[in-house]
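Suppose you are handed a protein chain with no further information: no name, no annotation, nothing but its sequence. What can you learn? This example shows the usual starting point.
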Amino acid sequence: MATMPVKKLLISMSLPAIFSMLVQAVYNVVDSLYLARFSAKAIEAMSIIFPLQMLVIALGIGIGVGTNVYISKSLGEGRRDRASRAAQNGVFMALVGVVVVVTLGLTAVKPFVGLYTDDAETAEMATSYMTTCMIFSFGMMIELTTSKILQATGNMRVPMFTQLIGAVTNIILDPFFIFGIGAFPRLGTKGAAIATVIGQVFAMAFSVSMLIFKKQDVHLLERGFRPSLKFMWRILRVGLPSMLISALPSFTTIMVNGFIKGFPYAIAVLGVYFKLQSFIFMPVFGLTQGGMPILSYNYGAYNRDRFSATFRFMLILALSYMTFGLVLFQSIPSYLMRLFGSDAEFIRVGTYALRTISICFVFAATIISVTTMMQSLGRGFTSLLITLTRQFVIIPSAFLLAKYTGTKGVWFAYPIAEFVATAIFLPLSMSVFKKEFNKKRAEVQTMRAGSEAVLVPESPLAPETSPMAPDLDDDLPEDDVTQQ
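A reasonable first move is to predict its three-dimensional structure. Written in structure tokens, the prediction is:
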């Protein structure tokens, strides 16, 4: 962190995360590619339930991130018993989350789908897919939590292979269950959901087995476990910002779908866009995951030059890749749309939408990098504010543009939102950067002068400095933790 050349360090730390993100992108799009060949209406069905799918994932991410940070802090303090108990409570919370998701799957999916389509066949496809995924969501919820537990112990390889197992299983099983190959029944969207949950269960089984049967710093099967509200509150308190950041785009998409549902193919086209753009955005998110600990370390070490060099190189890479995505979406949008359908009007609307929305890519690369920098400086609220700004600008813009311009203008809501967020927060981030490093310089000078006791973390990668984590100083009585 302190001596390796910045470019080499950033690339080496980012590549595993980029690979995992690309696997996730494949995981997101594979169902739609197969279903596009099953039925033209299947794409609209998948687009309708896509934001609901992302909300369920956001719940799992929130629990997983909160558990991860609590375990990391406990291990950093040398309190393995507490780390194990945090892991147990995290898995328990995931199971509670499963109960909530299953309940919603049985009661809320059909009314939700009915808000966006009057076509009985489309509604049935969407309902059967999402209901199946939510009823059998235990695989995804537990896998997300156990993978984050392993990451908290420094194990990055098992979570990467876990995602790969889930994606490959899904890809292999999809055609059998969707089209009814061999002895398998022809199930369409429900078959795609079955393939998805089987992949999730396989991934969960691998992750859990690695956590239980391989030597780890935490133990899920610690005797005497009982749920602790204090532990669960700390997990939720840490995970809530990540949950909100993951969930906000889903709420925005739900709103936008409501504005455009009266336009032919509009919902289906927006769903296809989100599937395709994941191959552009996900690697950038992987890049920033690799960059954040480097930025955090050098902020803690008061190495302003190295911090700046890391941010500049990260931004250059993000801009370069997003520019590639922009060129791709501008040059061959019709070919990309043909992957999901052959209807001429569907392709026409989609071609225009991809070219319009992709204008936002360059602005998005900038604002994603700025968000990462804010998190590395400990400005978690600012990063959340950036996400809120991006989403809240989209909603009124999409409403007004849909009302007065139809599909010709509604797609501009996304470039407008990214431009506004960049215009506001890029100059603000520069000001915050200077302010935080000036404050850090004062702390270092005070410490060196010995005029005041200042606590400077020995390692800025310690969980206490996790950018999104609030103070987790435990006020639990010792007997609550150790007397099991």
